[in-house]
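Deviations from the work plan: none for this task. Representative record:
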Amino acid sequence: MTSSIKAHDARILRGLDTSIAIESRPFLQRAGELGLTEDELLDEARRLLAEGVIRRYGAVVRHRSVGYTSNVLVAWNVPDERINQFKTVIDVLDEVSHGYERTRYPEWNYNVYTMIHGHSDGECLATVKRIANALELSEYVLLFTKKELKKSKIHAVALLFRD
Amino acid sequence: MTPLDATDVQLIDLAQHHFPLVREPYKAIAKKLGISEDETICRMQRLVAEGIVRDIGPVFDLTALGFASTLIALKVPSEGVDHAAAIINGNAGVSHNYEREGEYNIWFTLTAPTPEELAAVLNELLNSIRPEKLLNVPVRRVLKLRTNFLASQS
């Protein structure tokens, strides 16, 4: 195995990785497959959640199904000393799902990326303007999607056991 | 698609943010909703069948697992997008891949169990695609990360 994960944890992660059946006792069969009792598997899941290895356990909702039909990736040039301010602004905006500081290059002078959602492109643009105005930022680029080529969940465990 | 009623919205919120890791999770959710366990299960089955809920499971923090990842932007000729997409999408470590407007027209995320494997996989991809230009923009700091949406926002 190629990562620092303990073999024991890897076995548990593998058991938890795929979606559970929607039935009264969804963990029962899964636990049996791992040679554990239901309670042992649930204890392990709660431990991994507490340790942060599992960020969240539960339903994954499709964004488009809950009303968001438009999104845009925006790359921003934010002065390094104002990144904390930028963070504060996007923290309170529901329309912003992701924000990252990333490596900046001379030929691509952008260092912050946000994913912005709305019910229309116009609504997305309004959110972009709101952020730009709040922070007096003028250098940003809108990277609208032309085509979704792939979107899938990464099965971490599948990557680990590829070989 | 059946419109969501107030109970559906509450169910989605609970299942997203407070899915109980107990033997009978739907019984626990049902208690909070004031409906029966059977009705809770039926509603959830309907939400999955209609594609509103994609699945029920863990969202791993791949960084906590020691994984390495990055965002890659490529400039390829428009007639080369399909070819490049086929090569990129064949990798299990690619979760998102988009054709976008602008000079860099392909943007994808790449994840691997170690930094060394990430570099090796990326090299392999680039050797097959031979893009005109490339940006490798790994995360330096997470500013915001929300993996869930409130159903009530609809």
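Chain A touches chain B through 82 residues (CB under 8 Å).
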